[in-house]
Amino acid sequence: xxxxxxxxxxxxxxxxxxxxxxxxxxxxxxxxxxxxxxxxxxxxxxxxxxxxxxxxxxxxxxxxxxxxxxxxxxxxxxxxxxxxxxxxxxxxxxxxxxxxxxxxxxxxxxxxxxxxxxxxxxxxxxxxxxxxxxxxxxxxxxxxxxxxxxxxxxxxxxxxxxxxxxxxxxxxxxxxxxxxxxxxxxxxxxxxxxxxxxxxxxxxxxxxxxxxxxxxxxxxxxxxxxxxxxxxxxxxxxxxxxxxxxxxxxxxxxxxxxxxxxxxxxxxxxxxxxxxxxxxxxxxxxxxxxxxxxxxxxxxxxxxxxxxxxxxxxxxxxxxx
Length: 321
What we know:
This protein is an alpha+beta fold. It contains eight helices and seven strands.
């Protein structure tokens, strides 16, 4: 079937058998737990979901939707989970998080996505090697753990990027840094937008009383919740560091601008009276003193030089220079 990414029949020992669609249609619960992974954007997948009477219409709509916030929703015959994973695909921004929707009933796990998610691919590879989860419940727990670990790695890159930007703010006054810091804050806030509800979804999952979820799996989920809580705190710290860096950069730019304006103001203050006298002696009307004196020009220049020295002395006395 078009849109089927993989159909894996778990052997209960950490391995799985890949099934063709014809075998999926003949599958029965007694054959073992089954994991179906689909591309929800395919028409065949939408048709198949519409034929599943055991799935609620609202759940089907969410499984096939293009965007959903992370959440956990227990139902009478299963649980629905929506998660977001960092986008580690080539030429993609990590904060453009990939949506993964999952439905787990007693014997089957159904997941949908549109873009590739590294955590899912690694899970499939582990199952093919015989070193993966033994049950669909373990798949859910390990997926949550792997997706959270990848968030931590991306936050480590964010921290290094923030440190570099802080050094640039201290060592230089590049105006272009303002746009870089703004873009950085946008990435941090975009990631936090999904990680905050994902924490709530994981917390609800870990506390839900589910017969198929063992005590050790619940403990592992709580550890995942603790890790994602730390990631949220790190994101908030990164956001605050970006704000402080932006403020520091703005202060440095303002100081530099004020310094230039101060120099221009001092120059203007110095040459304003000199300009007044040169303008006054250049009006070319009758009666101007010194017009008949051959040394008149030098008297004016000497007077202006004396005025300049007096001005500079006054500025120094007032500590304006």
